[in-house]
Design a protein that fits this description.
The chain is of the alpha/beta class. The chain is built from ten helices and seven strands.
Length: 255
Amino acid sequence: MTTNHEARTREPAAVRVAVVTGGSRGIGRAVSRRLARDGLAVVVNYAHDAAAAEETVAAITACGGRAISVRADVADERAVAAVFDRAEREFGGVDVVVHSAGRLALSPIADLDLAVLDAVHRTNIRGTFVVAQQAARRLRAGGSFVGFSTSVVGTQFPAYGAYAASKGAIESITLILARELRGRDVTVNTIAPGPTATDLFLDGKTPEQIDRLAKTPPLERLGTPEDIANVVAFLAGPEGHWVNGQVLRANGGLV
């Protein structure tokens, strides 16, 4: 039986802390809000849109959660290290890293400007490597890293050559990291969403194109950011901690 004195003197459970890159909009915002709802303090990383990041933080704090926003280019190793430093100063450590920041460019391979290719790969490949490095160095035992690929790696839709190539690299980076963290009690997985109704996905597409893509999965709809956030929450929580070194195709059954 616990005495009143023991109850008063027992140390409170340490808060779990998440760093979410690209956390100000789309899937990243949904992930930030879902993890906060699960009780994590959230560091919302953003690249440019400070107002959107503050909206995400305000939505979290309005519901009683804890969150801060920190600007950083994910491909800049010093800036990313500073994000993790801030998380440790504000909240005491890092338990979950969700790397949802990314760049999309659509073009046939024959026509793609190589400067655009370099920009996509700088954000998606170098950015993932930089964030994964910090996660490998700083995640506490029991922690999780969740990266983002795309189901286009498997479907191989035309015009996605640069994007799918970068996401294939992400799958390799993260799955190797899972093996390198043997003995640390840290999981590393990657989610590969299918068509998901975000601004990034919808931009530049006609209603007819969107309707056609929505009907492609057997569930015959677009995914939502919240659908993907639920998968992240599972992988980042205790229920999903036996899942490690995997790519999860969260796409409604898209082959």
